[in-house]
Amino acid sequence: MARKVLNFIGLSVLLFSCLSQDKTQDSLIDVGWSIVEDSDRIALQDYYSHSNYLVISIPEEQPFYTADKIQSGDGKYFLGDIDLENTILIVDDQGQFISQIETGGNGPGEVPRMEDFVFHPDRNSLLILTGWKIFEFSTTGEFLNVISLPSGDLFHFIAYGGENKVWLYTLPFPSEQLPSDEFRMLTLYDLDDDEKVYSYLEVPEGLRAEVSGEKELTLQHGRVILTPAHGSRAYSVSIKGDDSDFVITRFSSLPQTQNLFGLQDLGEYFEKLQDDRGIAFLDNYIDSEEFSLFMMIKDGLYPRWGVLEKRTNTLYLTQSLFDSNLGLPLLPYLDVQDKKVFKLLDSEYFYEILEQDIDGQVSGKLKANVPQLMNQENKLLLCIYEN
Prior knowledge:
Layout: E1 3-5, E2 12-16, E3 26-31, E4 35-38, E5 42-43, E6 50-55, E7 69-73, E8 76-81, E9 87-92, E10 97-102, E11 116-120, E12 125-129, E13 133-138, E14 143-148, E15 157-160, E16 165-169, E17 186-190, E18 195-200, E19 218-220, E20 223-226, E21 233-238, E22 246-251, H1 266-275, E23 286-287, E24 291-293, E25 297-299, E26 302-309, E27 314-318, E28 321-323, E29 328-329, E30 335-337, E31 340-345, H2 347-355, H3 361-369, E32 381-386
Parallel strand pairs: 3-22, 4-27, 5-28
Antiparallel strand pairs: 1-4, 2-3, 6-32, 7-8, 8-9, 9-10, 11-12, 12-13, 13-14, 15-16, 16-17, 17-18, 19-20, 20-21, 21-22, 23-24, 24-26, 25-26, 26-27, 28-29, 30-31, 31-32
């Protein structure tokens, strides 16, 4: 590993008055590192002590491609293929097919189009966000209820927010003026009382339209975390009680690309990435007491994984994050729910990997760890990591 010593920025916490509509205090945490080490690859097992593998068995005719979001609860796993098939696959804790929630209908109990979904443990149900409404389903896929959100409010991402509450995130309007000065991007909503509890996160100055994508809200160790694509910051809110605190974690050692949204289209965005080697922002962010994992650092068009070990204040950078048990690289997307990290490896992934497996090393490890996977035509493997 090549070591590069940076000026130590350190960690500082600044309390300042809240800019949102409630009276709670916000905390700004500046995070830096004293050492940077480059590595050829980083094994996920270096940070998670337990690795479990679940072979998913579904009928061949089921419309499912891959998982954009993964949730677990009630002894089941919920695999959301949001972008392509716009569907949720439900399997038991052995990977066996239970049912599937499909979208595209406009009749009673039918979901027109899913933006995001979440498992709500207090209600023991799935909440599917369509933008203006939330459709509630049982954990076996039966329609239960529909909840209409406040008139005029459009939301894109949803996360668990405590007893009968959810956190909702809305992307900024792609217009020159916001609806009002009170517009906020992050909202805590009470499902029983049908009202907003808190609203946070003003729109950064100059923010106009979303061109680079957003990471959905995630529940991590009792906090809801958002890492939007317009800066090197992570926003987190506690789900304990009504006096939620709002914390901004700013990675000061990264170039402060506060706003990439002033660009007019994707072409300008990619041109900016190619020209500016210093552009960096957080993506796929996972945090714990010991480390911050998976900061996606953009170096030109080449993503780099980062792992910040908090005890040694060292940032490890690599272009390859992999599973050492299976000997397989993990592509640039992981999901997290509380203390578990998920990755679904799909048929297309295995086709490409096995085609290159000339010496049979990968096949050998797969047969040793998940022998039943090799007998399936439609290969779906859910990897689960936790401590």
